[in-house]
């Protein structure tokens, strides 16, 4: 068997395992049958199964825990950088393009959150809203809690595809805070509170407006800042 | 050295290679230095480098061509299924959620295409518009050319983050054509022509309206169809 044959067998086996996971009702954290069983089932060698499992691990579908076995990853196949942001060389173009996309999606996300959030969702949003304010008042970095605030809103939309767009919002927040150099902090606190209030009151129009304003302030400041550099 | 050490060394080496690709100005199709050179540079064993390269191949960052060497993949680290659509068990919820997200992004994409497209972009959009019509009139599947039509529009927006959202649009088109069972074909031809015309005339409002209409027709039909099944 040459290298090419081996590679296509690995691809075949990883596809089979993936199908088994999806159709077999495996949940996050469930343990995969061991290498030997899979090898027998699919009538292939153990080394092929081992390679296939490694491939699915690099794709964040499985996680191998030494000595314990192989498990379904909680990342559900979502890559750490699904949009390939690492590959953007022009970071100023990235920050502009990404906030443009954020403007397309996040006001509607806030609107959907106002319509679909339950009590628990609102508690989460409130919690991170408070955390961001605390961070800012104590002069700590608020990036992490800011991301969690927006993530809680996105999850409240109850649209599962949106959950997978969260990395876009996160990257935008990270780059925006970096560029605006903490100049927008008091506006951020105000905007966050308005968004929270509108979602809590299940007012979709107010939620959309508040989120739109929040992004406009960021975009305006970023534009001004970048036009000075360029 | 135990398995854990090996794994963290592989992670270290794959991060180093990735950094080398990004900072070293490597372009799609460029050849990576060979295993031995990388092993020497990073002071690690060849087997570690080999594993790291395999990992980057499963992440669509590198492509290994047997006998020729290792090259920068044209997929730029974008996975075949970056949104993890394979993992959605409820396909009816997926088709609804995905068209909701498409409605958030694609009208604005059409607007941006009307503003930013050049002559070559418009030629591409026109070409695939014609191809879809031919497919439909000859009773062939138009899924592939329909996807290429919408992809050409997304690329004309000149927003690089949008290019990475194309898999959402593609999946939506694929599932919509499947569900609407070719019932919307004449409307599709009309809508596509209107979108093309507006973009060709660099009329952003008309382009946005035409795309919005196109998605509304799809969503309406899909809703009706799903409500009968459920």
From TrEMBL, chains A, B:
It comes from Brachyspira catarrhinii. SUPFAM superfamilies: GntR ligand-binding domain-like, Winged helix' DNA-binding domain. PANTHER family: TRANSCRIPTIONAL REGULATOR, GNTR FAMILY, UXU OPERON TRANSCRIPTIONAL REGULATOR. Pfam families: FCD, GntR. The keyword Transcription regulation applies. PROSITE patterns: HTH_GNTR (PS50949). It comes from the Bacteria. Keywords: DNA-binding, Transcription, Transcription regulation. This is FadR family transcriptional regulator. Residues 7-75 form the HTH gntR-type domain. InterPro entries: GntR_C, TF_FadR/GntR_C, Tscrpt_reg_HTH_GntR, WH-like_DNA-bd_sf, WH_DNA-bd_sf.
């Amino acid at each position: 068997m040459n290298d090419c044959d081996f590679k296509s067998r690995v691809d075949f086996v990883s596809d089979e395992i993936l199908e088994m996971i999806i159709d077999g009702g495996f949940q996050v954290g469930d343990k995969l049958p061991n290498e030997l069983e899979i090898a027998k089932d699919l009538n292939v060698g153990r080394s092929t199964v081992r390679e296939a499992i490694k491939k699915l691990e690099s794709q964040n579908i499985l996680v191998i825990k030494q000595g314990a076995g192989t498990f379904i990853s909680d990342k559900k196949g979502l890559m750490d950088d699904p949009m390939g942001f690492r590959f953007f060389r022009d970071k100023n173009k990235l920050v502009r393009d990404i906030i443009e996309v954020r403007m397309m999606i996040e006001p509607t996300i806030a609107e959907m959150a106002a319509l679909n959030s339950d009590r628990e969702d609102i508690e989460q949003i409130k919690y991170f809203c408070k955390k961001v304010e605390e961070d800012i008042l104590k002069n700590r970095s608020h990036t992490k809690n800011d991301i969690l605030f927006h993530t809680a809103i996105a999850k409240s939309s109850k649209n599962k595809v949106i959950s997978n767009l969260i990395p876009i919002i996160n990257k935008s927040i990270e780059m925006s805070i970096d560029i605006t150099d903490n100049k927008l902090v008091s506006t951020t606190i105000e905007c966050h509170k308005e968004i929270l209030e509108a979602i809590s009151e299940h007012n979709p129009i107010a939620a959309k407006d508040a989120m739109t304003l929040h992004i406009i302030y960021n975009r305006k400041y970023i534009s001004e800042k970048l036009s000075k550099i360029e």
